[in-house]
Write a structure and sequence with these properties.
The protein is α/β, with parallel strands linked by helices and 338 residues long. 46% of the residues lie in helices and 14% in strands. Strand 4 and strand 5 form a beta hairpin. The longest helix is centred in the middle third of the chain and has 21 residues. The protein starts with a helix and ends with a helix.
Length: 338
Amino acid sequence: MSELEANARAIVAPGKGILAADESTPTIKKRFDSIQAESTEDNRRAYREMLFTAKGAEEFISGVILFDETIRQSTADGTPFPALLAGKGILPGIKVDTGAKALAGAEGEKVTEGLDGLRDRIAEYHGLGARFAKWRAVITIGDGIPSDTCLDVNVHALARYAALCIEGGLVPIVEPEVLMDGRHTIDRCFEVTERTLRRLFDALYAQQVPLTATILKPNMVLAGSECRQQADVQTVAEQTLRCLRNAVPAELPGIVFLSGGQPDELATAHLNEMNRLGGGPWELSFSYGRALQAAPLKAWAGKAENVAAAQKAYLHRARCNGAARNGSYTSEIERAAA
């Protein structure tokens, strides 16, 4: 087994998942605004240090996705964040795309940029300690969209990014997020998600990306956030599993779901039900941002005296999602103290 394949399997190790701590500077500012904390570089560093130093997190967290600023930062005692994480057995990762921009000639649709100079950036990030990377495409459901053009340019970019990662020694996480914004039904989400995934794997094959060293980060199959008819947990799990079986090759080592704006407990319940139902050839895990961070962020509130309480809240969410990895998450675990 190659080092890349071993790292891909480590990312989806049983009972563990990914903390997505790769919020851009504008996004983390919104998070900090919600707790009336100033988004200074030192506050951002202190917040990430609080998460990364939480004792016991390594029991449930296999990897952490970092932002460009964060991978260059260190703890208060001078330990670089990638070294801190690696020392706990957690793989450091890095977000490498430069964001979704308006797609020319396609109203309401976007294409993710960042391929220019990516080979050199991957080499730098590998030198800083990163062992995997992430690239996010965003697919909007609406009247007449997504268009074939939107899907094609986004999956082509994802595949080119993935090929460069493999060349540079990073496990690529490919994230084609079908957004839950809108009034669409769960059936419409199923259709668009399957269509997107089929095109993605065609593009990965065309770029000769080895799937045994690649991780998929998809959305769950959900009704739009403005749809009046929301499916129950079992239906979401069944529809998501059916969609994945239709479109995702078996040699992929694992799938790490994004939470996509779902409430914390619901994202955990959906993952738990999928693992309880089982039947897929891949590990089903998580790569959550808000669903792991909302509770600790609120508990922290930008104050050093709240670090212990915030770490407790973070560990609780990590433990709940760790249980969801094997279908053993329960309301009792949710209610238990961290």
